Amino acid sequence: MAKELYKKLKLLREQNQFSQKQLADELGISRPTYMQIEKGEREITISEAKKLASIFSLSLESFLTNNISASREVILESGIKSKKQSDIRIVMPRANVKKFKEILLYVLNKVGAKPNIGETALYKLLYFIDFDFYEKFEEQLTGARYIKNHYGPTPIEFKKIIENMEEKKEIERVKSSYFQYEQKKYLPRREPDLKSLSAQEIKHIDEVLARLSDKNANELSDYSHNDIPWKVHKSGEIISYESVFYRDQEHSVRNYEDEL
To answer: Spelled out in words, what is the top-level CATH class assigned to the domain 3-64?
Structure first.
């Protein structure tokens, strides 16, 4: 297998902030064996390549190509030109970034200390906060875009916003463990500015947290993976907000019969 693929694997792992042990566990191999793959001393099997592609939200073909520079570039304000034509440019308006930050801080203040709320669980809570709001009110709450990946719906802008908040000392990233698994958690360093949220929006967030924040990792994963918006998209695709209107009874949060 081409040497560039092993370099690409290491680059993708570092960009997505995975440890070698985390990927080794996902592949069902030991960390030393995984290290051999990154060093080019062991071939990747097809099943391993498919699993890694899914983890990084790529098609198998994209994962196996030798291009190691292409990435999703997240721009938090409009009017900034991308330097690389190969990048996928995602623009999130300043106002939406502000609201996303305050909602994130609100959620962390409410449930962030719970042992089950690591980064992956936080992704899912934010997804349901956004998509449930759109189903109920047909309006976007934060405007964040979510992609389908191996772990479930993932907000594209999340990592860039977190980096920005860490620089401003608004949030702190810590590592912990949940049962035998390594876990990333986030601690709020300031109170959320609730002036940017309406009473309706706060009530909605509280309802989502009351319904979902006590679910363990497997329960939350199963629930999100059975939601129609996640099911109907391919790995790596941006999940359409419009797909919430095709939800089943278990996931729908809107009483359509009252509107007839």
So the answer is: mainly alpha
